[in-house]
Amino acid sequence: MKIGAPKEIFEGEARVAMTPDSALQLQKLGHECFVEAGAGAAAGFSDAAYEAAGVTVVKTAAALFKEVDFVAKVRPPTTTEAKRLRKGQTLISFFWPGQNEDLLELCRKQGSTVIAMDMVPRISRAQKMDALSSMANIAGYRAVIEAGNNFGRFFTGQVTAAGKIPPAKVLVVGAGVAGLAAIGTSVSLGAITYAFDVRPEVAEQIESMGAEFVFLEFEDAQDGAATGGYAAPSSPEFREKQLEKFRELAPDIDIVITTALIPGRPAPKLWTEDMVEMMKPGSVIVDLAAERGGNCDLTVPDDKIVTGNGVTIVGYTDFPSRMAAQSSTLYATNIRHFMTDLTPGKDGVVVHDMEDDVIRGATATHEGEITYPPPPPKVQAIAAAKPKEKPKELTPEERRAQEVAAFRAQTRQQVTLLGVGAALILAAGLYAPASFMQHFIVFVLSVFVGFQVIWNVSHSLHTPLMAVTNAISSIIILGALMQIGSSSVLVMILAALSVFMAGINIFGGFLVTRRMLAMFQKS
Predict the structure, then answer these.
(1) Is the pTM of this model over 0.85?
(2) What digits encode the pLDDT tens for the residues 154-172?
(3) Most buried of 57, 180, 225, 252 (most Cβ within 10 A)?
(4) 408 is a catalytic site residue
């Protein structure tokens, strides 16, 4: 198949859907690659770099659409681009079918297949194709960089000859992919970082990254997790308690990064105007939800404003595009992985398997039909285990009765084993010669002593297996030493070999144990 990436015509968009590296990988799948002239220039990929990777550079977008079978884009197509699609041609891009119904209908009329990268199911197998997470990761990182660019102090605290500089305090609202990326960047820059999320399970992730989880005391505790990896809308009571907590934090926070957004829904208002007024002059708010109205009341999409009390509010909606080279590399890799699933034979033949959860989930139109919304994926998350019932509290009488019953059962078992053993020994004594009985008694005693010696070895500094084998080897050495003075040359040689091999096992065991312990030591 022929795959082509046109130049993005959305104002300010610098990303490109195919890079020279991803083109090389696509060619290994048996596909031919095309790119519009200048498509990667804003991301730092020259036409010469594409040509060196074996990509055909086409002069115009119209010529590209006529040439290729697959069109790879970043932004949703314009009406003009959608009209260029032909029957049987496939478009793969961010599409947002829930918000672009007219565009979806137009693509259906054209007879083209639309693969929406924003609709890739959030299941384990599809993580390598999850373009939303790739872009959110970059947005979270870039949000901290933008905050630092507009913040008038260091992130990390310093003690200098000119005085002491306190560290910046950063609050990240929402601990999804973008939030966790912002937390990691903020912590690495030395700021005191706080984070809040309505999903209780992310508290451990937040703390593991070095940030402090903002705990919200709420009587009717709720799990804010929802299907698809996003947070569920909160109840009005929970939201009021949440805003109350933010008002308490606002005067002490230097930088606020809000990331709360569910695709297809308006952004929830989490940082109100009165909270902005409580913040110190020079503070910064970076609103990653600006494209859907913003989490802050005062956010202006695609703009940066400074309030009357000196708080800077950044409402840019193109954070991934501000790191175009990195964003293009990750997004092109997501598309390449998707094409790998579409090309199971790696022979350039695309198989659009609508039975595949990932392919079906991302397909918005196919064979003249609108296939959005997709059915829920067959692979479901493992349900939470039901809480175990607490054992019934026993009364002293019941506990005593249980102990007596257990003692009687153990006594009966021991008496039975002793009786059977005595019967077997008596039977052997009746029919076996006296010399055999002498050896047999020694054997039984040695087994008993050996059992006690081996199983009482402490393995606090060994693995249990190492401890037991060392104990057995010690018994072998003792037996061999008793036979090494034998008059028989053969017995002497065998005893010496036994000592030698058992010694190797013991000393080798200690060496292995020492190396294992060294793996857990810092120095």
Answers:
(1) no
(2) 999 998 888 899 999 999 9
(3) 180
(4) no
